[in-house]
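Q: What changes when serine is included in the input?
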Amino acid sequence: MNTEENTGTHPGTHTRLSTEDVVRTFVEYFEERGHRRITGSTLMPPPGDPVLFTTSGMHPLTPYLEGQPHPLGRRLVNVQRCLRTTDLEEVGDSTHLTVFEMLGTWSLGDYEGRQSLDWGYGLLTDGFGIDPSLLHATVFGGDDQVGPDTASLELWQERGLPVELTVQDNWWSNGPTGPCGPDSEIFMWTGDTPPESTPTGDDRWVELWNHVMMRHRRLIDGSLVPLPQRNIDTGLGLERLASLLQGRTSVFECDLFDPWRHLVPGLWQLDEPSLRLVCDHLRSATVVIGDGVHPANTGRGYVLRRLVRRLLTVLWREDPSRELVDLPVELVLHTLDHFRQDVDPDGVRRVLLDEERRFRRLLERGRQVLARPRFKGPLNEEDFHYLHDTHGLPSDLVLTLRQE
Ligand code: SER
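A: The predicted holo structure follows.
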């Protein structure tokens, strides 16, 4: 992980905080402002939530955003592990991880968006030392259902931050129905040149922090009704912030990846994108297994299976003799420790090794079956059904094997 792109330090910050320091600074800042720290939940969302995994810090809080009183009050702060598979294709770029932690704050019917943004700005600039000239905000510009978010716009104008107005990019929802609202996002410039363009116009503007004015509920017919209270829900990707504060332009360069960077290249020679993918997926698979998921053909288990198979496909592309048995247990342990998962690392490794064996056998069978004369020409739908139902070969795997 030592390309020119990601070893550059960034001039916009003057701190060298570890990830743990970033968490502590964040939590204390909000505790000083009346927030109580809640314990982050596992990757399993609460019953009834439309997603397979927790993808945002607000998931465990949905009932409280909908009006149920929270036992710790109206101001909350936490660190929540999240898994996002919508970004899977982006893993390997500088800013996306499959499993990551989200620093979050909530006002449950207490203070408004203006206050939240102002505290956020204060923490980023005074607390973390980010040069304000490297920040840019985006604000909801209004659509045919909800008017523009003028309160956020005014706050940013008072603070002297450039603002871009958007519609879809500044509306946050958890799914097609449920709590939602306009949001204001804070971006940081990561380019080598002085800042230019806007967040939607230049991807060197990296999104840091999203503040959602969570006051609507979308119904099945698409209409919006007010939630019983006006909430604020904010989320900030920990690894992204930590890497930028550590002067790195890639999440794979933050301190959490130090052990991976030390151990994996000595084990397997991989190009930079493959190394990132392998580390990300191994780390994510570890956390998912640590939360009690086993590989399966449906649901959460299938997400885990895809992660493991994807990383094995990358590992075996160059050298099919590579084996997960070589994976140092320290890496599994480091990951479980970081995510505060009290699970036996050898048990996690056993799940990975079982899945590896299963995948190897499937590939061998697939190659034998596909070598039959029947499958030499183009495959039709019936062939794909037969390969899947009789031999357990999913169509994406069949396509991969035929490219070998
Ligand atoms: N729910 C919002 C998000 O995930 C803010 O936490 O971006």
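Observations recorded in class: Residues 309 and 359 are 7 Å apart (CA to CA).
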